[in-house]
Design brief:
Length: 437
């Protein structure tokens, strides 16, 4: 049997501890699958004394993860520290420079420095595996990088943040407040260290940036993503969506258009009958549309220790099975030096349907004024719903418009016009509708 694969793990939080536990509990099975043992020989974390529910006494302890990356007797460096700079970036760079394979779950690091790190890995002839960085336990990187060779992708979109999907699902099903749902997501270990990264869409954006590169063979362009989170979504939106046959999901979407590639993260109305609308709770889903395969939808657990550990262990096992000259190809599907520049499509040219919720004074001419603003901007309406707002004597109405396909520029102009007309009593709400099967 080949020599054991020696693994060093930096970061022993929820995911790191789960990885160590799975490698220990499944050692015999992994040896049979990989043809060699996988042994954790070194670890590093902030607090040495914490009980993590797994025996790490056989592994050498390093206080400094960079020292572990450079000096430990390891073949694979597993980075589970997180963050796009600081210790995570330094130790991944050090491990690659020292010619070690790297496995990471760090989407923020890859979204910012992935191409540069891939160049080093490819030059050194080592693997940089990152399945756990996107959609937790779903093997979407493997699918896009290996199983879809030759396909041209037209659109990739998905629910990429378990915390947001968990919050939206519970808000809808149980009528709970946003804050209560977020607290539970944090307690269950789904949320990022700073949960604003979840709810404001940054975490989804990091994952989307990686998928975009794999889909279109372009350099990662995480700064060119249109970003809106879910903190403005109210029970009124959730109820109105339901009445009109839609459900609200935070989607990341990358789409090829005539003017370039659109990358956007925003709350989205998807038809209630669509498959992606049935993806609930912490579950993630990724839909990929290609010329050869057609439409593919992968769904599964997107966050949490075990789901993420499953992807990390899969990446380590791939390294155990690989041998020089027989690896799974470039880090982002094409050699890092050959990734094309990213050509951004402007958000104002985005074409699609829109949901517009307006709270207006209940007086003569308001409806006509709204209709005129829509017509002036060439916006055709698919449906219009009007509600009385409560019974507290305030003469307000809610008007909900669903448009046929139009452009972002037209909707922004029309809504600005309605706002200037002075009929609104609250901020207008605009939510894009996504075509989904
Ligand atoms: N905070 C992330 C989520 C964890 O909620 O999906 C997985 O990246």
């Amino acid at each position: 049997m080949a020599e054991a694969l020696r693994v060093g793990i930096a970061g022993l939080g929820t995911v790191g501890a789960s990885v160590a536990r799975v490698l220990r509990d499944k050692a015999a099975e992994l040896t049979r699958q990989c043809g060699r043992e996988i042994v954790v020989t070194a670890v590093s974390a902030r607090d040495r004394s914490r009980d993590r529910g797994v025996d790490l006494s056989g592994a050498k302890w390093f206080d400094d993860p960079i020292e572990l990356a450079e000096k430990a007797d390891i073949d694979v460096f597993v980075e589970l520290i997180g963050g796009d700079e600081g210790a995570a970036r330094s130790c991944v760079s050090a491990a690659l420079a020292a010619g070690r394979h790297v496995v990471t779950a760090n989407k923020a690091l890859l979204a910012k420095h992935g191409v540069a790190l891939a160049e080093v890995a490819e030059k050194k002839g080592v693997l940089l595996n990152y399945e756990a960085a996107v959609a937790g336990g779903i093997p979407v990187i493997k699918t896009m990088r290996e199983a879809m060779a030759g396909n041209s992708v037209n659109r990739v979109f998905g629910i990429l943040n378990g915390t947001c999907n968990y919050i939206l699902t519970r808000m809808e099903a149980e009528g709970l407040t946003f804050e209560a749902c977020l607290k539970d997501a944090q307690r269950l270990g789904y949320a990022e260290a700073d949960p604003t990264f979840d709810i404001e869409g940054n975490d989804t954006a990091h994952k989307l940036a990686i998928l975009t590169s794999l889909a279109f063979g372009t350099r990662i362009a995480s700064d060119d993503i249109y970003l809106e989170g879910i903190s403005n979504i109210t029970q009124a939106d959730i109820r109105a969506a339901g009445e009109l046959g839609y459900r609200i999901k935070l989607l990341g979407v990358a789409q090829r258009t005539e003017s370039g590639i659109e990358q956007r993260v925003h709350p989205t109305m998807v038809p209630t009958a669509s498959v992606i609308a049935q993806v609930h709770g912490v579950t993630n889903a990724v839909a990929i549309e290609t010329d050869i395969l057609g439409e593919l939808l992968l769904s599964g657990p997107g966050a949490g220790g075990n789901a993420t550990a499953s992807a990390v262990v899969g990446d380590i096992a791939d390294i155990a099975k690989s041998r020089p000259g027989f690896q799974h190809g470039p880090v982002f599907g094409r050699p890092a030096k050959e990734l094309r520049p990213y050509k951004k499509a402007q958000m104002r040219s985005h074409a699609g349907g829109y949901f517009i919720r307006l709270t207006v004074h209940d007086r003569t001419g308001v409806f006509a004024a709204i209709a005129k603003r829509m017509a002036d901007n060439d916006i055709s309406l698919e449906s219009i719903v009007q509600h009385a707002n409560g019974s507290d004597g305030v003469s307000e109405k809610t008007v909900i418009l669903v448009t046929h396909e139009t452009t972002e520029a037209a909707v922004r102009k029309a809504v600005d016009g309605v706002t200037k007309d002075g009929h609104l009593t609250d901020k207008p709400q605009v939510i894009r509708i996504e075509r989904a099967g």
